[in-house]
Amino acid sequence: MKRTISFEPWREHAFFVPVSGDPAKPVPEFAHLLMTVPGRSRTVRDALINLIDSASERVFLCSFLLGGEAVRDALRRAVQRLRGHVYVITALDERTLQRSLAQELDEIDLDALRRERKSFEALTRHGVYVRGAENCHAKFCVVDDRAALLGSANFDPNGLDLEEPGTVACGELGIVLEGHERVSPLAALFRHLWKCGCQREAPPHREAYRLSGVSPGREQAPYSPDAGDAVVWTGFGSTAILAGIRRTVTAAQHTLVLGSYSFTGMRERPALLIDDLADARRRGVRVEMLLRDRSRDLPEISALIDIGVEVRANRENHAKYAIADGDYGLLFSANFDGVHGLTDGVETGVWLRPDEASEVAKWHAQIWRETPCQALRWLTPIAFAQGMPAVRHESPPFLGGRLSIVGDVDALAR
Fold it and tell me: Is the pLDDT of residue 152 over 70?
């Protein structure tokens, strides 16, 4: 069947199209880098459980979303062993949870909402002290002020690939930090967030789950170091993650690899990142960005393609990173979002040492080669005549329900 319709509505937007990707193969075990690669690696999960089990004084855990029997069991063991002293910050009240789940899962998942609430009830019954912070998207755990885990993964079944009912595992990265200089700023951030950044709490209680308000304090915020191999964050007056990303982009001479769950709200504020990426391309830097294949981001992604950034996307990526020339950059929890994360809310990240950064670059290279979906600016009638589908997963909202094609309609359904 042949049908001829104008291409004009599509000229302003990008599309996800298939490319030939390498077959999936085992991912290496790195010396420093932790990961969740669905069905292939769960080292973030293993490191988190081991870290909690190693605590001898206290546990500070902050996760945008929280759940999973393995995590709850580890926290229960810690409470019994430490006789309390386990503190959790998460998205606690139902309104925040609904907004949080919609952001992370693209829609409100009522089953996920019930699982989150069940987790809180189970934790407080066993003696874990839980507080809720709005707009806190950070994911980290600190034990005894001596060691920490930080990265992109929520400490829930999706982020840790716990293989529980309803799990949709994500691709994640993380790292264990040790030593006073790296860990103490993160512990200080948790203490400040606990005292001054939370609005709700569910104290330990054996009989009933009780959610109540809490008045935030007004203490001076800790300083985000933003130097060397330091922990950095967004929040409490700091935008050090954004500054670190921009510094990494500016430093790149040959290659720049970036990862994020989403790319949204950036075209309206090009000075945040797009202008720096354009400068890097003018210097001859090859720029690759790995994203989740969310059709809602396609209008924004078109701005990246226009300046020569190569964009690939898959159904799993939730890792966030920026690495220049294979050995310089940082790992963080913030998405490339012009509204949330880079300039407001609470996020965490860390400047990587060269050997740590090189592992992220190697991980990116493997996942990039395996990713069978690339973003292109717009498709020509010739591409359609060759049987190239326009949109890989869902019809983007900017099409308004219209399909504009020239060529063999049956070929597009493949």
Answer: yes
Residue 218's pLDDT band (boundaries 50, 70, 90)?
A: confident
Question: How far is residue 368's CA from residue 22's CA, in Å, rounded to a whole number?
Answer: 9
Residue 40's SS3 state is coil
pTM comes to 0.87
Q: Which two tokens stand for residue 170?
A: 């994500």
Burial category of 173 from C-beta neighbours within 10 Å (exposed 0-12, middle 13-18, buried 19 and up): buried
Q: Please choose, from the candidates 78, 109, 70, 158, the residue with its C-alpha nearest in 3D space to the C-alpha of residue 117.
A: 109
Length, in residues, of the chain: 414
At 221, list the tokens: 């915020």
Largest CA distance in the chain: 73
pLDDT tens, residue by residue, 235-284: 999 999 999 999 999 999 999 999 999 999 999 999 999 999 999 999 99
Question: What is the per-residue DSSP string for 124-185?
Answer: HHTT-EEEE-TTB--EEEEETTTEEEEES--BSHHHHT---TT----BEEEEEEESHHHHHH
Half-sphere exposure of 186 (CA within 13 A, CB side): 36
Q: What are phi and psi of 159, to 5 degrees?
A: -70, -25
Of 294, 280, 269, nearest to 322 by C-alpha is 280
Contact 176, 138 (CB under 8 A): no
- Contact criterion met (CB below 8 Å) for 231 and 346: no
Q: How far lies 143's CA from each of 122, 148, 317, in Å? A: 21, 6, 28
Closest CA to 41 of 21, 24, 20: 24
Give dist(CA 288, CA 286) in Å, integer.
Answer: 7
pLDDT band, residue 22 (cuts 50/70/90): very high
- The DSSP secondary structure of 22-37, one letter per residue, reads PPP-PPP--SSEEEEE
**Assigned token pair, 29:** 């075990």
